[in-house]
């Protein structure tokens, strides 16, 4: 499976959102380096945060003025949030940019990471760190689908529930994009699936 990630992501031409003046953020899609059963590392954000509190998210955050690029931002934030050292990440490439509901341009970067590393969640930002097998998303085990109207069209974004964690919104959208690009999952985003619920 990792061979597909390493071959398809660098060849992908990601969609770039032209949003001059918007603040930017970089997030990491951390895929563990277990060939037959890779997992994605996700975080549950602290309830004390002013935005996205109590939500499942990918490691990442806003770009600082000193960040050389958004990949650097994603790696810096992953280190700050969960203790993942940048040197341990094999950055494979970017996915398409998105604009969050807070008006932030978000660029995800796929990175292959060790299965075991010194996990140190930042207690001020992160309530919990957990993993979801890639296979779970490939099977599209959605709990429901949310319709989001954006850029003049409707998007049908899955909402997943894995072991009590609700994975939805921008995080789910990024993960579906990753599944479609890396594994040709063909999870539909622009047509409502059977049994669609808002």
TrEMBL record:
Protein name: NUDIX domain-containing protein
UniProt domain Nudix hydrolase: residue ranges: 22-158
Keyword annotations of the record: Hydrolase, Magnesium, Manganese, Metal-binding
InterPro entries recorded: CoAse (IPR045121), NUDIX_hydrolase-like_dom_sf (IPR015797), NUDIX_hydrolase_dom (IPR000086)
Record's keyword annotation contains Metal-binding: yes
Superkingdom of this protein's organism: Bacteria
Species this protein is from: Halopseudomonas formosensis
Cofactors required: Mn(2+); Mg(2+)
Matches recorded under PROSITE patterns: NUDIX (PS51462)
A GO molecular function held by the record: metal ion binding
């Amino acid at each position: 499976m990792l061979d597909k990630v390493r071959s398809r992501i660098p060849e992908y031409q990601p969609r770039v959102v032209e949003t001059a003046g918007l603040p930017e953020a970089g997030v990491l899609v951390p895929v563990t380096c277990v060939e037959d059963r890779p997992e994605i590392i996700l975080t549950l954000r602290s309830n004390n945060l002013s935005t996205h509190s109590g939500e499942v998210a990918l490691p990442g955050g806003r770009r600082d003025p000193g960040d050389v690029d958004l990949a650097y931002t994603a790696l810096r934030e992953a280190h700050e949030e969960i203790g993942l050292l940048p040197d341990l990440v094999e950055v494979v490439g970017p996915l398409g940019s998105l604009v969050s509901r807070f008006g932030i341009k978000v660029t995800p970067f796929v990175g292959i990471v060790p299965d075991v590393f010194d996990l140190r969640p930042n207690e001020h930002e992160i309530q919990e760190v957990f993993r979801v097998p890639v296979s779970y998303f490939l099977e599209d085990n959605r709990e429901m689908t949310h319709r989001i109207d954006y850029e003049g069209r409707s998007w049908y974004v899955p909402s997943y529930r894995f072991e009590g964690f609700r994975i939805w919104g921008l995080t789910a959208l990024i993960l579906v994009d990753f599944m479609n690009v890396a594994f040709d999952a063909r999870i539909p985003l622009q047509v409502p699936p059977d049994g669609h619920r808002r």
